């Protein structure tokens, strides 16, 4: 095979393909990173009802100023919960009613009744109700009031 053909027809296009893939990858990462921090800053169409709390400082050593709490959170159609982090506030959220969309670390995740959603220290997310009926979540979390 002619060495000039390799240089002009295979290596150069392969090099440009590699550069294009690297540039597209960098753009994709930048878009995902940007989308993680661009959720709503305030809740809309959301109500919360406290179901109970336990002061963990008297229950578990080393848990001073922490509570275990359970709530019912209702998101009306078209409503959303603001972007928030679960650093220092792990939670388990049971989907009671509706079909909410969770935007977790920039990725949309649809949920349905019966789903248990676990969020730990590396999770930043928000919830949206894109449906026509109310979404009801039952979060149980460790919280520092």
From TrEMBL:
Residues 72-140 form the Cupin type-2 domain. InterPro entries: Cupin_2, RmlC-like_jellyroll, RmlC_Cupin_sf. This is Cupin domain-containing protein.
């Amino acid at each position: 095979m002619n060495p000039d053909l390799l240089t002009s027809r295979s290596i150069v296009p392969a090099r440009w393909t590699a550069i294009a893939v690297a540039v597209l990858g960098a753009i994709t990462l930048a878009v995902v990173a940007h989308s993680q921090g661009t959720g709503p800053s305030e809740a809309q169409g959301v109500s919360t009802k406290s179901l109970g709390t336990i002061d963990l400082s008297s229950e578990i050593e080393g848990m001073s100023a922490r509570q275990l709490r359970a709530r019912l959170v209702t998101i009306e159609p078209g409503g959303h919960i603001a972007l928030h982090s679960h650093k220092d506030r792990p939670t388990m959220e049971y989907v009671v009613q509706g079909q909410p969309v969770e935007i977790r670390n920039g990725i949309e995740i649809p949920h349905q009744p019966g789903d248990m959603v676990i969020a730990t220290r590396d999770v930043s997310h928000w919830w949206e109700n894109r449906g026509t009926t109310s979404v009801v979540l039952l979060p149980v979390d460790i919280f520092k009031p």
